[in-house]
Amino acid sequence: MDARLQHLPNTLNRTGNHVDEDALIDLRGLMRVIRRRLPIILAISAVMLLIAVAAYVLTPPRYIAQSSVALERGAEQVIKVDQVVPTVDPDSAAVDTEVAVLQSSELAGKVVDRLKLTQDPEFNHALADGTPITAVDARRAAITQLRNNVQVERNGFSYAINVTYQSESPQMAARVVNTIAEIYISNQVQDKSGATRRASKFLEGQLQKLRGQVQSAEAAVAQYRARHGLFEASQNSSVAQDELSGLNTQLAEARAQQAEADARLSTARAQLAHGSTGEELGAALDSPVVSQLRAQRAQTSARVASLRQRYGPRHPDLLNAEEELRDIDDQINGEVKRIVANVSIQANAARQRTASLNHTLNQTEGTLAVNNAASVGLAELDRNAESARVLYQAFLDRYKQMRAQRGLERGNAYIIARAGVPNMPASPKLLVFLVLGIVAAIAASAVAVAIMQLLERGIETSDGVERKLGVASFGSIPDTARSPEFDKNEAASPPVQMIVDRPQSSFSEAFRRLRTSIQFAQPDRDSIVVAVTSALPGEGKTTSAICLARSAALAGARTILVDCDLRRRVSSSEFDPLKSIGLGALLEGKGTLDEAVFIDEASGLYILPRRPDHKSAAQFADSPAFATLIADLRDLFDFVVLDTPPVLPIDDSRVISAKADCVVMLVRWRKTPAKAVEIALRNLDEVGAHVVGASLSMVDIRAQARAGFGDAGYYYNAYKSYYA
User: Fold this and answer.
1) How many CB atoms are located within 10 Å of the residue 104 CB?
2) Using an 8 Å Cβ cutoff, are 413 and 72 in contact?
3) Are 697 and 667 in contact (CB under 8 A)?
4) Highest-scoring range by mean pLDDT, 242-246, 347-351, 460-464, 489-493
5) Which range, of 67-81, 124-138, 267-281, 486-500, averages the lowest pLDDT?
C-alpha cells in the first residue's frame, strides 16, 4: 500500500479542513446523503403525512369543558359560635387534598348516579356492543370512564382548582364538570350538616344524663344539711358561724357595760364610805330630781342665810327655813341612796348578762365544732353538685349553639366559574397531527436512509475514492443511459459510439480528463502503457478501456487497444476480430504484428483483438512473447491501452498490470464494495503494479448533482451548458 501512497498528488497528502475532519457530525456528508435519498425521503414523508391526515379525519372530535372552584380563606359566620367542623384558612397541602377529593372514586360514583351515566353508551360500552352486563359492573365501568377523562389541577399557587372533562359530546362535557363541582360543594355542606345533627343528638342524650346527675347531687346536699342541721346563712358562712359572731359582739358589749357599772358602783361606795353625801356622784349629777332638789336647797340655803342676818337664832321664820333646808337635805340623801342602789342593780344585771352570753357562746362554739366536722362531707357533696352543674351548663350551652347553627352550614369552597357548552372541539388538532406526521416522517425517513446507507458498501464521490482507497481520483465516467444530455435513441446506442458521435458531451470529456490525468501521472514517458482493470466483473472496465483508447486516438495520439481478457473478449466483440489473426496467434508466432492489428476507421484507433475461434487457454501474461509484444508496442505507439480481466477472479490481471507503466482502477459508482477494491489494490501492490488512480464508472450525473458533494459532478448544473 505504501507504493501506491507515494504516487498520490501532493494535494492529497496535505491536511484538509480540520473543522470538517474533527467534527463530531459531518454536516456536508449528511447533506449529501439527504440530497441523494431525497426521493425516498419525500416518498416516506408523504406516506406518513397521509397517515397523519387519515388519523386526523378518522379520529372522532372531543370537547373539553372546564369549571372552577375556590377554597374559602375565611368563613362567614352569622352567629359567632364554634362549629363542629371548624373552618380554617387553607394551605398548600389542604388545596392538594381537595384536588384528590375531586378526583376520588366516591365523588365520581355520585356523579354517575346523578346523571345516570350507566345508561349512556359513552360510559357503558356494553349498550353499544349489546353484551349483557350487571348494574355493578356498569357503574364501575362508568366511574372508570369518567375518571380517565376528568382532569383536576390547581390553578398556579392560588386557592382555585380547575376541573376539566373531555367528551365526544359538548353537552355531556359541560354537564359532567358542573355536576362534579355541585356535588363537591354539596358534600361539604352535607358533611357539616351531618356533623351538626350528630353533635346535637349526642348532646341531647348527654343532657338527659347530666340533668339527672345534677338533681341527684343537689338532693344529696340538701339531705345532708337537713340531717346534720347545717343551714347556709350566706355564701361563705353558716348559721352557727353567724350566731357565734353575734354572741361575741354582744359579749364584748356586755362585758364593757358590766365594767362600767362596776366602776360606777365602786366609786359611789367609796365616796359614801368617806362620808360624802353622794351629791358629787356622776349618777346623781345626772339625775333631774337631785338637780331640782339641789336648786331648791340653794334657794332655801340663801333664804336661811338672809334670815340669820335679819333675825335671831330663834326666829320662827329662820327655824322654818332651817327645817325646810334639813328636809331638802334628807330628800337629796334619799335620792342619792336610791341612785346608788340602782347602780348596784345595774351592775348585777350586767354581770348576769355577761355570764349568760358567755354560756351561750360556749354552747355555740360547741355546735360550730360539730358543724365543722359535718361540713367536710357537705363540701364534698357541694363539689360534686357544682361539677355536675358546670358540666351540665356547658353541654346545655353547646346544645343551644348547635340548634342555632342548623340551616346555616356552608361548604369550605364555592364555584367561581361554571362550564359552558363548548363550541369548538379541543381535539383532534390538525396542527398536532401534522407535527406528529412530520416527526414520524423524519423518524421513518431517518431509519430508512440509515438502513440503506448501512446496506450500501459502494463509493459515490471522488473524495470517497481518495479517502477510502488511498489513491488519486481520476474523475467520474457518466452513465449514458441516464445522462440528461442524450435522448432515448442516443442512450440506447453503445457508449463506445458516443466518443465518436458526441465528442462535446460530458461522456467524451470524462475520458479526455482521464487521459490527461494518466499523462500527468507519467510526465517523463513519451509512450505510456496503461492497464485498465477493476476489482469485479460488470464495472464498465472494457467499455472504459475502448472509450479511453478512442479518445486518445481522436486526439491525434498513436493509440492501440490490446484485448487481454482471455475469457470474456468483450472489447474484441465491439469490432470485427476476424479481420485479425488475433493476440493468441501473434503470441504463438503464427503471424506478424501487422496481421494481428487492424484500424478502427471511425477513430483511427489500432486494435489488437482476440479471435473468438482461438481455443487456447494457456496463460500468456507472464510469457516472454507478451513482454516482447509490450516492448514493441511501446516503441510503435504513443498510448497503449491494455484491457485486462478483473483482479479478484482472474490472476492474469495482476501479471499484466505489473508489466504496464501504470494502472487505472475502475470502480462502479455506488455498486462496487470499497472492501473489494481495497483487496484488489492490495493484490496489485503485491506484484509491484503501479496504480496511479481510480475512476468512478457508470455514474448517474443527475443523482450525483443532487448528492455528490466532493465530486465535480455536484456542480454539473452550473457547467452543463458547455456540453453539446
Assistant:
1) 13
2) yes
3) yes
4) 460-464
5) 267-281
Q: What are phi and psi of 244, to 5 degrees?
A: -65, -40
Angle at 400 between CA 397 and CA 405, to 5 degrees: 125
- Residue 682: what residue type? R
CA distance 466 to 543: 23
The per-residue b/e assignment along 503-520, b for 16 or more CB within 10 angstroms, e otherwise, is eebbbbbbbbbbbebbbe
Residue 193 confidence class, pLDDT cut points 50, 70, 90: confident
- Beta-carbon contacts of 660 under 8 Å, excluding residues fewer than 6 positions away, are 529, 530, 531, 630, 642, 689, 690
Integer CA distances (angstroms), 108 to 58, 141, 143, 378, in order: 30, 11, 6, 63
Among 499, 544, 537, 505, which residue's Cα sits nearest to residue 695? 544
How far apart are alpha carbons 29 and 467 in whole angstroms? 13
Q: Which three cell numbers stand for residue 533?
A: 482493470
Distance CA 377, CA 232 (A): 15
The residue assigned the cell 362567614 is 76
Q: Are 536 and 681 in contact (CB under 8 A)?
A: no
Instruction: Single out the residue of 477, 549, 522, 465 nearest to residue 663, CA to CA.
Output: 522
Q: Which amino acid is at 251?
A: L
Task: Select from 142, 137, 133 the least CA-distant residue to 110.
Answer: 142
Question: Would you give the distance in Å from CA 106 to the centre of its chain?
Answer: 26
> How big is the CA angle at 93 (ends 413 and 114), to the nearest 5 degrees?
40
- When pLDDT is averaged across residues 163-178 and rounded to a whole number, the result is 90
